[in-house]
Design goal:
Structural class: mainly alpha
Strand content: under 5%
Radius of gyration: 15 Å
Helix content: 55-70%
Order of helices and strands: HHHHHHH
Number of strands: 0
Largest sheet: none
């Protein structure tokens, strides 16, 4: 996970992108970047649910470098994602997509690209 995070930060400046994310909570105890990083870890570790993620986050010092010391629970993650503006994430993913195209990691002659992520698959390829 540490190598993955270093790569993502080096290529996509992911830490700068994540810090800019906000939600509508007035004084959050768990910061929005910690919630978003938790979900990123869930997809990177191919966990099937927020409850599986919560059990991984409860292991001492696991994912501290990615999420931080104050880790969210499954309910907090769902609630915060409900309060986030989806356009923030769309714009962030658009900038990442642009960087992938500039790095020639995505080969596509069409002007429009899309990516679908489904976290409810039982098998991965």
């Amino acid at each position: 996970m540490a190598r993955f995070c270093r790569y993502a930060d080096k290529v996509f400046a992911l830490s700068k992108e994540i810090v800019a994310l906000r939600d509508r909570r007035p004084q959050p105890q768990i910061l929005t970047p910690a919630v978003w990083s938790s979900v990123l870890a869930m997809f990177a570790m191919r966990l099937g649910s927020l409850n599986a993620l919560e059990s991984e986050l409860r292991v001492p010092q696991r994912l501290d470098r990615l999420v931080g010391p104050d880790k969210p629970g499954a309910d907090t993650i769902g609630r915060v994602y409900g309060l986030m503006d989806p356009m923030q994430q769309v714009q962030m993913l658009s900038r990442i997509n642009h960087r992938l195209a500039r790095n020639k990691a995505l080969h596509n002659a069409w002007p429009i690209r899309f990516l679908a992520v489904d976290g409810h698959e039982f098998f991965s390829q």
